[in-house]
Design goal:
Blueprint: E1 6-9, H1 18-40, H2 44-57, H3 64-77, H4 82-98, H5 109-118, E2 122-126, H6 131-139, E3 150-154, H7 164-174, E4 181-185, H8 188-196, E5 200-204, E6 219-220
Parallel strand pairs: 1-2, 1-4, 2-3, 4-5, 5-6
């Protein structure tokens, strides 16, 4: 393998379990979203994302209740909306800081990230969750505060995760040739897009029974199985 100088990792299903996001974070935000918007809707940053949600949905005139119902529908659909992810992140911040939960990390992830960082590799995150939500997750993880390990974060403002151009933008942003970057994810379509941009890829499949017979990308059971 060409020398790897930077690693970009997904979160859900890669560093952290899908169930934590879907069974803890999503319901937490869904339950609190109406009250959050009613009590914080006059704040400039909240107003901005409410406007962006309405624009994304093509709503010219919409009441606050209309937007709330739209966002709840998007949560149920797991829509990869930048506006929704930003608002969810604001709600999750309250939950983390209140100690209502800590972010799940697979057992080997923290140690492996620290080893890679100690070896001089630069570490980045690329997730559909907003950058603030990503930072909260790694700051309040079961393994402690992991944010000092990361050099940067990317979300869907960089571009959709299944589009090749998004990965070209990431390579440009971190100032590294794509051939020296490894992208880790559990979603093959994301890996396809990264590889088309010139990245090396690693497919995280945590359940061995689900391993494909002829994978298009190197398959790993966990971070310890990844060789650079």
């Amino acid at each position: 393998m060409t020398e790897i100088r930077a690693i970009v990792t997904d979160i859900e299903g890669t560093t952290s379990s899908i169930s934590f996001v879907r069974d803890v974070l999503f319901p937490y935000a869904r339950k609190r979203l109406p009250a959050f918007i009613e009590t914080h809707g006059d704040q400039p940053d909240v107003q901005h994302w409410l406007h962006e949600a309405a624009r994304e949905a093509g709503l010219v005139e919409a009441s606050r209740q209309d937007i709330i119902e739209l966002l709840l529908q998007w949560i149920d659909q797991d829509r990869k909306s930048t506006a929704l992810k930003a608002l969810q992140g604001m709600i999750w911040k309250d939950g983390y800081e209140a100690g209502d939960y800590r972010a799940h990390m697979y057992p080997e992830v923290a140690a492996r990230l620290r080893d890679w960082r100690a070896d001089g590799l630069r570490l980045y995150v690329y997730s559909s969750g907003s950058v603030p939500a990503q930072q909260l997750l790694f700051r309040h993880s079961e393994a402690g505060d992991l944010t000092p390990l990361f050099a940067g974060y990317f979300d869907t403002e960089t571009g959709p995760k299944r589009e090749t151009e998004s990965y070209r933008r990431i390579a440009e942003a971190i100032g590294e040739q794509a051939a020296h970057i490894l992208f880790l994810s559990d979603i093959v379509e994301e890996l396809d897009a990264a590889r088309a941009a010139g990245f090396h890829t690693g497919w995280l499949i945590r359940e061995p029974l689900a391993w494909p017979d002829a994978p298009r990308h190197p398959v790993h059971r966990d971070f310890n199985a990844i060789t650079l």
